[in-house]
Design a protein that fits this description.
Helix content: 40-55%
Radius of gyration: 29 Å
Pfam families: DUF3458, DUF3458_C, Peptidase_M1, Peptidase_M1_N
CATH class of the largest domain: Mainly Alpha
Family: Belongs to the peptidase M1 family.
Distance between the termini: 23 Å
Number of strands: 32
Cofactor: Zn(2+)
Bound molecules: (3S)-3,7-diaminoheptanoic acid, zinc ion
Protein name: Aminopeptidase N
Low-confidence stretches: 1-16, 375-404
Largest sheet: 9 strands, mixed
Keywords: Aminopeptidase, Hydrolase, Metal-binding, Metalloprotease, Protease, Zinc
Number of helices: 31
Shape: globular
Length: about 950
């Protein structure tokens, strides 16, 4: 270990000994052209150790160096060298100096959509994580923070709008039909937050007055024809600005906030300082072209990017290992925002379902990854320092004094970014932040946030810094909580209960185990907050005043939770909690609100679960009880299916669904969630060997049985939830539509002419896409003439709107129609499809991978299709290709035939010429697992 670290010593010197000076302006100048763009950058560089001289290494990729000046003098060829990743100044001045670099870049040819690129005739940038190095040579790391000015010159008629971060301080005309602007951003920022947009755009304008009276101009930019579809985005932005003031006391800090919508974007959106750039899908909405789910996603993502202004931009990450510092926290903040704007329970249900469908399987496979890799750094640091007899705390100052450590971090970070474990960093990261709030309550959490900003505003910090702020603001004892950041894998929590009627005591015994994950064979116990209520036979919570635990009696406080919820702190491998004065055997409601991201096995009986479903004051756990029952039912039917036994639906389950459907006291959106079966992926994730055919057959069987037994109820639900009012995105209306649409989806499973007529009627009379698309989905389930006609009709109607057409692609791609891979191959040649547009790839190719029966087809046709697509896509856009190849990562979960078919495709991909690092990293990790 020590030897390999030493090997990096000479390489690392330059990076560490120089830094681009804090708080000085970085002057950028862009001359945008039709074939090439010139980028000039003027930066001030200071040696870290005054008077020392060693090479300065700057990052750069796909750049043509035009000129290089140090303190105004052109540098001679022998004083620098350029390779495919770096520009190295071999012996720069030993005192502070000015460095001017001119590069030439080709945004028109940039299909990777990182750095500066063109999209539908406009220029735009994407710099997180390592895109800035495709614009100019720079120390492309988040801890290098500076103030920026940006001058943009371009043809005035082609690019009338020229935007960058901060305030517009100058603009004017130039010769030859060109014009220029100068933007100045007064806040220090890392280069990943730099942004530039140029093109023919128009804006929807509004204003927001902050609570201290600052008047902020809000502008949402799109091509002129899309402007009417930005009303909901503007509403969402203003709501987010208000919410952050109300809940966290955080105000916006400039006089202008821009959002630009672009059609070609690798992900959802980007939080560049004062110039957020969005995938159009997450900005544009009208009742006719966007569903309720789209409206909700826009609200959440506009909120998310806005919230980054404080959690990400004002306080940023020291290095990319700390990504969850900003992303886990900001996802948590957007989840809370959406909860406050709609139904908290339903939002929590959606987020937990997402976690189970995507994060759990990843955390149990070859791509399992801690929220923040930690052990790696610790091992290296120990090897380095123990040799010198030094002991150094892992704090950010380490970066500035220890060259070897830094370089190792930089190399490994790159691989971390290439494999980008989104689910762990974002979704599990948000669960980790939620646990602080569960433990500290709202006011304790707010105190922690206040201290975090007080300590770290304007800094690049670590997850430990966030932890320390939460702990110190509350004087809290968080024992082994930090392990949540460093240990991968989903903990399994087992619970057994006993009631002693004589002593009137009730005991819960917990045991926990974290499964081994790649590189982490041995695990430590985690700190698991278990939110608990004990239900008496009347369905109400029994008051809990004290608990005997760890040899002492602890007094319980409720912490603002519902009913008599108490938070147990489970921190050891095995642990018992004993409750006194419990007059009858209670039914425990555990992990209320899903208080920790664990898999729980308990000794609750079916009768207990039905009781919780009917009575728990925690609505999340009512839903959860239904889901546990459904999972048990599905797994037992899967076993019957595999043994060729006839499938029979449990009548108790049927009555449970019927009673929820008919309970008018329940929120309609909650009913829609409660009668939705767990997804096929979730069930496969619970099996020893995943069997897509069995799981799909069982889920289809239950859906069909429920539809046929409850046909009249479902028809009544559809009919009684129609509305002739204009579309409103508010809770009563979206809840009504959710219930109507789930009823229609159940009915769509039936072979029944009258039902087809009903669905066609809904399709034709719908006044909004939410209802029209739901009817199309119902009709899509049965191959035949009606299906073909209605799909053709939908395309005819919406062919001019690429976002709606993407839904049409996805619907067909996800179809369970046997042999659907051939239809998908044909759709690749459809005039509306374009492999260079990520949204289209996600819809058609990603959509196909979402169909368990066709993607996992036993003839290997689905795997072969994906293998071919990955190789083609990788040449165009490695990030998108790497997302697609991830569909193979869990190949070992399937039977041997499928395993060998998937393995052959992974091998084929790895053998392809010129494979990108992105795809190589995921394909090779998957194969090696
Ligand atoms: N921060 C960006 C994501 C960037 C991902 C780069 N590979 C959007 C977000 O999470 O808000
Ligand atoms: Zn984010």
């Amino acid at each position: 270990m020590f030897q390999s670290s030493v090997a990096f010593r000479s390489l690392s010197q330059g990076i560490v000994n120089y830094r681009i000076t804090h708080c000085r302006w970085i002057d950028l100048k862009f001359t945008l052209g039709e074939e090439k763009t010139f980028v000039s950058s003027k930066i001030v560089v200071s040696p870290r150790l005054q008077g020392s001289s060693s090479p300065l290494v700057l990052d750069g990729a796909d750049l043509k160096l035009i000129s290089l000046h140090v303190n105004g003098k052109e540098l001679k060829n022998e004083d620098f060298h350029v390779d495919s990743r770096h520009l190295t100044l071999t012996s720069p001045p030993s005192e502070k100096f000015t460095l001017e670099i001119v590069t030439e870049i080709y945004p028109q040819a940039n299909t990777s959509l990182e750095g500066l690129y063109k999209t539908s005739g406009n220029f735009c940038t994407q710099c997180e994580a390592e895109g800035f190095r495709k614009i100019t040579f720079y120390q492309d790391r988040p801890d290098i923070m500076a103030k920026y000015t940006c001058r943009i010159e371009a043809d005035k008629s082609l690019y009338p709008v020229l935007l960058s971060n901060g305030n517009l301080i100058d603009q004017g005309d130039l010769e030859g039909g060109k014009h220029y602007v100068i933007w100045e951003d007064p806040h220090v920022k890392p280069c990943y937050l730099f942004a530039l947009v140029a093109g023919q755009l128009e804006s929807r304008d509004d204003t927001f007055v902050t609570r201290s009276g600052r008047k902020v101009a809000l502008r949402i930019w799109t091509p002129a024809q899309d402007l009417p579809k930005t009303a909901h985005a503007m509403y969402s932005l203003k709501a987010a600005m208000k919410w952050d003031e109300d809940v966290f006391g955080l105000e916006y800090d400039l006089d202008l906030f821009n959002i630009v919508a672009v059609p070609d974007f690798n992900m959802g959106a980007m939080e560049n300082k004062s110039l957020n750039i969005f995938n159009s899908k997450l900005v544009l909405a009208s009742p006719e072209t966007a569903t309720d789910a789209d409206y909700a996603a826009i609200l959440g993502v506009i909120g998310h990017e806005y919230f980054h202004n404080w959690t990400g931009n004002r306080v940023t990450c020291r290095d990319w290992f700390q990504l969850s510092l900003k992303e886990g926290l900001t996802v948590f903040r957007d989840q809370e925002f959406s909860s406050d704007m709609g139904s908290r329970t339903v939002k929590r249900i959606s987020d937990v379902s997402k976690l189970r469908t995507y994060q759990f399987p990843q955390d149990a496979g070859p791509m399992a990854h801690p929220v923040r890799p930690h052990s790696y750094i610790k091992v290296k640091a120990h090897a380095l320092f123990s040799n010198d007899g030094m002991s150094v705390a892992l704090h950010h100052t380490v970066l500035f004094v220890l060259p070897v450590f830094l370089h190792i971090l930089t190399i490994d970070q790159h691989f971390f970014l290439v494999s980008f474990p989104y689910e762990q960093v974002y979704e599990k990261g948000a669960e980790v932040v939620r646990m602080y709030k569960t433990l500290l309550g709202s006011s304790g959490f707010r105190k922690g946030m206040d201290l975090y900003f007080k300590r770290h505003d304007g800094q690049a910090v670590t997850c430990e810094d966030f932890f320390a702020a939460m702990r110190d603001a509350n004087g809290a004892d968080f024992s082994n909580f930090l392990i949540w950041y460093s240990q991968a894998g989903t903990p399994r929590l087992k619970v057994t209960s006993t009631y002693n009627a004589e002593a009137k005591t009730y005991s819960l015994k917990f045991s926990q185990e974290v499964p081994a994950t790649p590189g982490q064979p041995v695990k430590e116990p985690m700190f698991i907050p278990v939110a608990l209520g004990l239900l008496g036979s009347n369905g109400n919570d029994i008051p809990i005043n004290s608990v005997y635990h760890d040899g002492k009696l602890e007094i319980i406080t409720s912490n603002g939770q519902p009913g008599h919820t108490t938070i147990l702190r489970v921190t050891k491998k095995e642990e018992e909690f004993v409750f006194n004065d419990i007059p009858e055997r209670p039914v425990p409601s555990m992990l209320r609100g899903y208080s920790a991201p664990v898999r729980m096995d308990s000794d609750l009986t079916d009768a207990d679960l039905y009781f919780l479903l009917a009575n728990d004051c925690d609505e999340f756990n009512r839903w959860e009880a239904g889901q546990i029952l459904a999972r048990k039912l599905m797994l037992s039917l899967v076993s019957d299916f595999q043994q060729n036994k006839p499938l029979v639906l449990n009548q108790k389950f049927l009555h449970g669904v019927k009673s929820i459907l008919g309970d008018s006291s329940l929120d309609k959106e909650f009913i829609a969630k409660a009668i939705t079966l767990p997804g096929e992926g979730e069930i496969m994730d619970m099996m020893e060997v995943a069997d897509p055919d069995a799981v799909h057959s069982v889920r289809s069987f239950i859906r069909k049985q429920l539809a046929s037994e409850l046909k009249q109820e479902f028809i009544d639900t559809v009919k009684s939830n129609r509305s002739s009012e204009a579309y409103e995105f508010d809770h009563p209306n979206l809840a009504r539509r959710a219930l109507k649409n789930i009823a229609l989806a159940y009915l769509g499973t039936l072979e029944d002419e009258a039902i087809t007529e009903l669905a066609l009627h809904e399709y034709k009379t719908a006044t909004n896409l939410t209802e029209q698309f739901a009817a199309l989905v119902a009709l899509d389930q049965k191959p035949g003439q009606t299906r073909d006609e209605v799909l053709a009709d939908f395309y005819d109607k919406w062919q001019h709107d690429f976002l709606v057409v993407n839904k049409w692609f996805a619907l067909q791609a996800m179809s369970d129609v046997p042999g659907n891979v051939e239809n998908v191959r044909e759709l690749l040649n459809h005039p509306a499809f374009d492999m260079r547009n990520p949204n289209k790839v996600y819809s058609l190719i990603g959509g196909f991978c979402g169909s368990p029966v066709n993607f996992h087809s036993k003839d290997g046709s689905g795997y072969k299709f994906l293998g071919e697509m990955v190789v083609q896509l990788d040449k165009i856009n490695p990030q998108v290709a790497s997302r697609m190849v991830s569909a193979f990562s869990r190949w070992k979960r399937y039977d041997e035939t499928r395993q060998s078919l998937a393995k052959a495709q992974l091998e084929m991909i790895l053998a392809a010429n010129g494979l990108s690092e992105n795809v190589f990293e995921i394909a090779s990790k998957s194969l090696a697992a």
